[in-house]
């Protein structure tokens, strides 16, 4: 049975260095870290397009409606680490707000679980 | 325990969009991707793995100065339960060398499903250990492959050294309904353990 559980791309993935050219070589983002399912939403602040890379603009467009870090990374087809840096740049410029998922492990209660359960049963 | 304001204005801010994370762990080829695909809209995600000393020796890094990461592809699934409530299902690669990814995924996860193949039960040990040590609630789902001997659930419980109250469910990872039942079993298990904390202000 074919399985995609483990796909080593290595050589097929192409140069590893290039995506980080988008981030001027940075591999760590600034500021508070954020979860894969943290919600990103564009603010109403206007951006100076000359200060942004095309990838920043793609990310910003995706965040016009609330969307998660994982969804953005999948949509722009860039490695997660690169997307995190682009998002942190946009946050620093005040162009996006990134919020922690409401359902963190220490805040789980029966109300949310019942909502999830009802949602699953209705699928 | 105090909760933050529950968005009384009902505005469509980021807080009203809730993302819930469930992990799906298990050995290589046990059917994680199949299960994610059966029940959700599957999406690819690229991430990077820092090259360890061990992999440095086997990966040819000649001519790629400063190459310290390699790309790992993984999938995740998204299930929209409601417009503002989305469940994310992350399949976590089973091998220990991917634990750096588990640590990232595990933070804030609601719970986990350990998918096991009864012919290779030992491959689910690392995942079970991982969740037990971090107190992440989980259930075990046995993927019943064609022709696999259907083990008695209690035999599996003994083999995996699981507590009597730990749910073990049988599933067919290819079936949407079966995959859905696995997730329902996990959430029911979480409900039993969760504190009764009504949140005011949300109807």
Q: Would you kindly provide a written description of the structure presented here, covering whatever features stand out?
A:
The complex is a heterodimer of chains A (123) and B (203). By secondary structure, chain A is α+β, with helices and mostly antiparallel strands. Chain A is built from five helices and four strands. The model of chain A is unreliable at 1-6 (pLDDT under 50). Chain B has 203 residues and is of the alpha/beta class. Chain B has six helices and seven strands; from the N terminus they run βαβαββαβαβαβα. Chain B has helices at 32-39, 53-58, 99-106, 125-133, 153-160, 176-193, and strands spanning 18-25, 41-50, 69-82, 85-92, 111-116, 138-143, 168-171. Chain B has a seven-stranded mixed beta sheet, with helices on both faces. The longest helix of chain B is centred in the last third of the chain and has 18 residues, at 176-193. Classes of the chains: A alpha+beta (123), B alpha/beta (203). At the A-B interface, β1, β2, α3, β4 and α5 of A face β1, α1, β2, β3 and β4 of B.
- Strand and helix order of chain A: EHEHEHHEH
Q: Estimate what percentage of residues of chain B fall within beta strands.
A: 25-35%
Q: Secondary-structure element sequence of chain B?
A: EHEHEEHEHEHEH
Oligomer: heterodimer
User: What can be said about the biggest beta sheet of chain B?
Assistant: 7 strands, mixed
- Let me know the average pLDDT of chain B: 78
Shape descriptor of chain B reads globular
**Low-confidence blocks of residues of chain B:** 1-14, 53-65, 198-203
**Percent of residues of chain B in helical segments?**
25-40%
What's this entry about, in short?
By secondary structure, chain A is of the alpha+beta class.
